[in-house]
Protein: ABC transporter permease
Amino acid sequence: MTQHLSAAEMTPLSPRRRRRLSTLTIGATLVAMLVLTALLAPLLAPFDPDAQTISARLLPPSAAHWFGTDGFGRDLLSRVIYGARPTLLLVSLILVLTIPVGLLVGMLAGYLGGWSERVLMRITDIFLSLPNLVIALALVAVLGPGLLNGALALALTSWPPFARQARAETLALRRSDYLAAARMQGIGGLRLIFGHILPLCLPTAVVRAALSLGGIILSAAGLGFLGMGVQPPTAEWGSMVAEGSKVIFDQWWVAAAPGGAILFASLAFNLTGDGLRDRLDTRHDG
Structure:
């Protein structure tokens, strides 16, 4: 019996399409591994991350301690596993603060126009011109070190890109037939913004958020490295790298273990963001 295949079934996946699928799949898999590691830290960590054993300090990687031990004899594998928790929590807090603020400012500026748009975008430009890490360090120095203060400091300079992107998309939609039809039905104001403009701006905001997470993780690690983030003895990758930098030439594994974790997390979110961009942005189809 002859089987008739459709054109879609006979057409093989293009190299670009296969790359998108693999990039998004690999990135999402790595992010899922990172999240599961943070959630299951008590089950995965072989030792108490804060337990100090001075007699076992600065041991190299071995069967007992896969990543070695630090200057206080704490198991580095356990501390790297637990270090995923404050990093992901900090990233989540920053996203919760930046995405709504950025979208709201951008959509209002694009929808209202006139002097409201000029004022909102000049404020956005001012915050966009500020160096992220320098301003974060200044705010944390005033507010005091800690997870919440670090998230607030980094969020203060992370929302302007979302606002500029949302404004550009809202300007393109403002005179579209889609919004004209909604206005003819009596829909306007905030109902039009949140019910019709927001759903169209949200996908690109999600992609931008995924692409910016790698930089946010590096900024959070920078705060921890300078002692402005999560305070000891809580395991945090940036502070662990700072501790390891003191003995990096003799006991390289103390800094290499948390440094590798930072690289892994940044790579996971960058791959996910790249895959999401290719999947959601039709301009990349070809």
Q: What stands out?
A: The chain has one domain: 23-48+64-285. The radius of gyration is 23 Å. The domain at 23-48+64-285 is CATH 1.10.3720.10 (MetI-like fold).
